[in-house]
Structure formats: structure tokens, C-alpha cells
Amino acid sequence: MEGFVAKQVHDYQNGKISRRRLVEILTFVATTAYTGKGALGAEQSGLDAALVNHVSYTCPDFRRAADWYSMVFNLDQVGGSARDVALPFGKKGEKPYGVTDDDVPLTHMICRTRPLGASGNGPPRRKANAVIDHIAFTVADFDRERAKAQLAAVGVNNVRDGGPFSVYVDDPFGYEVQIAGLGVTAICGAEARTTCSDTR
Amino acid sequence: MERFIADLVQNLDSGKIDRREFCKAVALAAAVYGAGDAAQAQAQRGFKIIGVNHLSYTCPDYTKARGWYTSVLNMKSEPTRDDGKRANLMFGPEPGKGGSFLVTRNPSNVASGSAGVKQGAQAVIDHICYTIPNWDEARVRATLKAKGLDVTGRDGSLHVYDPFDYDVQIASAAAENAFRR
Fold first, then answer.
1. Are B132 and B140 in contact (CB under 8 A)?
2. What is the pLDDT along chain A (200 residues), one digit of tens a residue?
3. Are residues B60 and B99 in the same domain?
4. Residues 6 or more apart whose Cβ sits within 8 Å of residue B121
5. Chain B contact present for A152, CB below 8 A
6. Per residue in B85-120, pLDDT tens?
7. ipTM passes above 0.90
8. Is A134 on the interface with B (CB under 8 A)?
9. CATH number where B106 lies
10. A162 touches B at CB < 8 Å
11. CB B53 to CB A147 under 8 A?
12. What is the model's pTM?
């Protein structure tokens, strides 16, 4: 972003573009750079994953897990059954943050209790040679010290710093959960945001 | 925004700010503009989840996973974060504006502050489901087949395995929606 802006300023100061044109370009870029789809442009042959639809979380007691995630993240529980319940990341009718498509639902978490190899109605699930070892949630207006206080207030202990811009906690089943702000991105990780901005 | 930038240009011209300050101010304005909605949405107490920030995926060979997820789900690898042991694969909205990423990493690579793969955890994320917008059943199935994948599941909600036999679900909004369970 800064490189692009610098180039436009250079062109302006060398008379290649007018002041009006400079303002127009930068206004357009500033109001579209972080909104909606990027102009990846490349020819693609795969499927465009728009968002995580849901995370399937299996544990010995799904109700206990669901209650914990509801408490910590203010999530409602919907569509419960004897073996699982869904926790959508918002209210019914809300649109996921930053998504421009009309057919992308809110992400949700399904807390469930079932044998590890079981799947829905299909054949038994294969034993994976990979693991999602932690999941990070983005929360609005993250502040690390305030987050620690909030977690302590609801009885969550063993909070670890994940760099200046996130914290790690363990849920009731020892699963590691990271809580992060919007600034933690694929480009600027939680632990190296400052240096990241220097190398972009 | 236009008025703000016009003022910045005036300050640049009059020497009140230098070129470096000007560039930083515009970049910051864009980021704030993009993040404004989220900040406004904060709940008064507790955390307000915006979405999944990232998933940390540990496997025997992150390059193999990187290749699969970039090919099948069009995730985009961020080159500056690929250190030979891990890669950050972006998908969804722009970074910092609701976008998510999948961190594929080798077992020796652990995020700062993370405990890494924990043997004692009693819970597991047994699959991840990704939403595909503009779902076209025939196109989705043909795409997966062209990648050499065995597809199971039902229309609108399909399952495939990645190279490490991790269960990956791919779904439409109509088939997988928390409020329609």
C-alpha cells in the first residue's frame, strides 16, 4: 500500500499526474483496498473458499464445551441435538464481516460428542496424519491486557501471551485457542507485526 | 475520505508533512476505513467474534499441504511468511478485513506462544468446512474430480481428503447454515 502511494506521489511531484488525479486515485485505493475481494486476477482452476463455514469440534462432553465457548465469546447455541449443537458467530440475518457475496453464511462452530472416526452419514473417517493444533478467533477491538482481564473475570486461567496482539488459552478439554485482533493477518503475524510492516 | 486526502496533499505541498509521512497517513486512513465497521460492532462485554482468524495445521510436509490448498481451494500463499517450515495461506476477504488464513506447518514449527501439538488435549477439530459462494453442483464436482479427488457427501455438502487424510468439507450456504440445522 505504502509503496503504491509513494509511486503516485512521485508521479505527482514530477508532474506526471495532476493534483486532482492524485486525490482521485488515492481516494479510490483507500476506500477499496481493504474492502471485499482482492484483485488476485490470476486464472484459477480450483474452488474459491470464501470463508470457514464451520469448525467441527469433537470432545467428550459437547455441552460443557458449548457452554464455555458461549461464555467466553458471547455465542448463542442453536439447533441442538442429543449429540451436538451449533454456535454461530453472530445473530440470524447478520452477514459475515468483510464478505461481499450474498450467499456466504456466518461461520459457526459445531460442538459435538462422537467417536473420533465417525462422520455424519458417510463411511468412517480416515485417521488423519495432520492436526489442527490450534484455532485463532478474530475479535473486535482487541487489547491484550483488557482481554486478559476479561478472561480472568470469567474464570479462564492459564492465559499466555501470543505476541503483543493475541493471547492463547486452553479450553476445558485442553484444546488451545488463540484470541486475536484484526491486525493479526497472514501478512503480519501476531508475533512480528512491527517487523512485518517494515518488510511488506 | 476525499476531503481528508485533499488536505493531506495540501500539507504535502506546503511542506507541513514530508513524503514519508504522507504515505503513512494514506495507508493508515485506508486501514482505519476498512476496520471501522468491526470496531463499531464490539459488544459491551466479553468478546465479539468477527470470525476465524486462522487455523494452525501441522503435518509432515507443509509444502505438500500448501500445494493442495492453493490448488483445490484457491488459497493464496503469502510469500513473506513462508520460511521453509510453514506457509500462511489466505482466503476470503482481504487481510485485516475479515480474511482468514490456514497456517500449514511442519511439526518442528510452532507459533510463538503456542504449545504446538498437545498430546493431552481431549478435543479435536475433526474437520473444517469451507463455504464456496455461487455454488454450482456440477462445476464443483467436476473441479474436484479434475484434481483427482474422491468425493463423498451430498449435493451442496461434499467431503474430500487432503494429502494427509484430513477431512475437508466444501459446502454451499444452502446446505450448511447454522440457522437451518
1. yes
2. 666 677 788 888 888 788 877 887 787 667 656 544 333 333 458 999 999 999 999 999 999 999 999 999 999 999 999 999 999 999 999 999 999 999 999 999 999 999 887 777 777 889 999 999 999 999 999 999 999 999 999 999 889 999 889 999 999 999 999 999 998 999 987 654 444 432 22
3. yes
4. A173, A174, A175, A176
5. no
6. 999 999 999 999 999 999 999 999 998 888 888 888
7. no
8. yes
9. 3.10.180.10
10. yes
11. no
12. 0.76
Number of structural domains found in chain B = 3
What is the chain B residue with the closest CA to A173? B122
Asked if the structure places residue B118 within a domain, the reply is: no
Q: How far is B68 from chain A (nearest CA, A)?
A: 10
Q: Among partner residues A31, A48, A136, which is closest to B1 by beta-carbon distance?
A: A31
Sheet of strand A84-88: strand arrangement: A84-88, A108-112, A51-58, B124-131, B167-171, B157-161, B152-154
> What chain B residue is nearest to A42 in terms of C-alpha separation?
B74
Chain A positions touching B171 (Cβ under 8 A) are 53
Q: Provide the grid cell at B101.
A: 488464513
Asked whether residue B67 is domain-assigned, the answer is yes
In a domain, B7, yes or no: yes
Q: Are residues B34 and B62 in the same domain?
A: no
- Match 463455514 to its residue by C-alpha cell: A53
Sequence-separated (6 or more) residues with CB below 8 Å from residue B14:
none
Q: Which domain holds residue B164?
A: 124-181
Minimum CA–CA partner of A191 in chain B: B112
Given an 8 Å threshold on Cβ–Cβ distance, is B113 in contact with A190? yes
- Domains recognised in chain A with CATH numbers: 2-32 (no CATH), 51-119 (3.10.180.10), 131-200 (no CATH)
